[in-house]
Design brief:
2 domains, 336 residues, Rossmann fold, Alpha-Beta Plaits
Length: 336
């Protein structure tokens, strides 16, 4: 069941179209990623979900409620179901960690005992119970983002919007924050929408993904399918820059200087043959295959990437023909 629905949504700022005729559904209980380069329209899209920006045309429904025509009071009711975390944390430095988390509860009218109990619960959940009376200036970036997550979850939202939640963090800290977001989804049942320009973020935790470019959604689907078999050039660019599993022209030239045999790149995923099966096929056709380049990583826990082989032997064509029916192959040809 869709908890967020975009139907032909457009958002203009004067003559500039930031979001262009977007149709999109986010299913209840999933982690949904929106990825795109800077200026693609991602942040505007997320601000439309919690009505911080009014749409120009189209329809947005959040948890069954259309946002069009709502009064400010009615919009506040919708926003109470939506938590949000930010790239730069947006904490109040004059308040302690506990006071930051308690703030939205105070605004919502929770009693002091209710606030205290909920703050303690949330800080325990994000692993910061011992830092309740610490001020944000004494925290690391990862700890600040954990406070942001606790604050966003305090009022028990059904949706959590994460706008570039790891862009200001180092790789190790990023892993911890992403693990926490997945925990929010699996243990609390909160639907999470992640806005990012980093494919590594989508690859790690998102069930489905939408790729944006110049205000449009150019590709969408299960994360593994979108990034192992990308159809749009923008998506292909993300995959190539993130995985770096296929040789660039410069790299190919260096490989040719060292490896005079025939060079081919063979895709690796959980549908096609394993690397062992690839080697077995080459052996069957009396082809000597040596890995000279490539990378294999995981997308949502499943293998993805490619390996480039140098091939030498008499029956290379037959071997490649047998493999081509099972996986993608790029034939770079024989060295000179």
């Amino acid at each position: 069941m869709a908890i967020i629905e975009f139907s032909h949504v457009t958002k203009n700022f004067g003559d500039f179209t930031a979001v262009n005729d977007v149709c999109l559904q986010v299913e209840e209980g999933e982690v949904f990623g929106v990825i795109g380069y800077s200026g693609a329209g991602k942040s505007t899209l997320v601000r439309l979900i919690n009505a911080l920006e009014p749409l120009t045309s189209g329809t947005i429904r959040v948890d069954g409620t259309s946002l069009s025509g709502l009064t400010e009071s009615q919009l506040r009711d919708v926003r109470r179901r939506i938590g949000m975390i930010f790239q730069h944390f947006n904490l109040m430095n004059s308040r302690t960690v506990a006071q930051n988390v308690a703030y939205p509860l105070k605004v919502a009218g929770w009693s002091r005992p209710q606030r205290t109990a909920r703050v303690n619960e949330m800080l325990e959940f994000v692993g910061l119970a011992s830092r309740a009376h610490t001020y944000p200036t004494k925290l690391s970036g990862g700890q600040k983002q954990r406070v942001g997550i606790a604050r966003a979850l305090a009022a028990q939202p059904t949706i959590l919007l994460a706008d570039e939640p790891t862009s200001a963090l180092d790789p190790e800290t990023t892993t911890g924050v992403l693990d926490l977001l997945r925990k929010v989804n699996t243990e609390l049942g909160v639907t999470v929408v992640v806005i990012t320009h980093e494919m590594s973020v989508v690859r790690a935790i998102c069930d489905r993904v939408a790729v944006m470019d110049q205000g449009k959604v150019v590709e969408t689907g299960p994360t593994y399918d979108v990034f192992t078999r990308p159809q749009n050039p923008v998506t292909q660019g993300f995959v190539a820059s993130s995985l770096q599993d296929r040789p660039t022209p410069e790299t190919l030239a260096r490989l040719r200087a060292r490896h005079p045999g025939r060079l081919v790149t063979i895709g690796v995923d959980d549908v096609g043959p394993s690397t062992g099966q690839v080697i077995h096929t080459f052996n069957q056709h009396q082809v000597n295959a040596t890995v000279v380049y490539g990378s294999i990583t995981e997308i949502t826990g499943r293998p993805s990437g490619s390996l480039t082989y140098e091939l030498n032997g008499q029956d290379i064509e037959s071997a490649l023909s047998a493999l081509s029916a099972q996986t993608t192959i790029i034939d770079w040809g024989q060295g000179v």
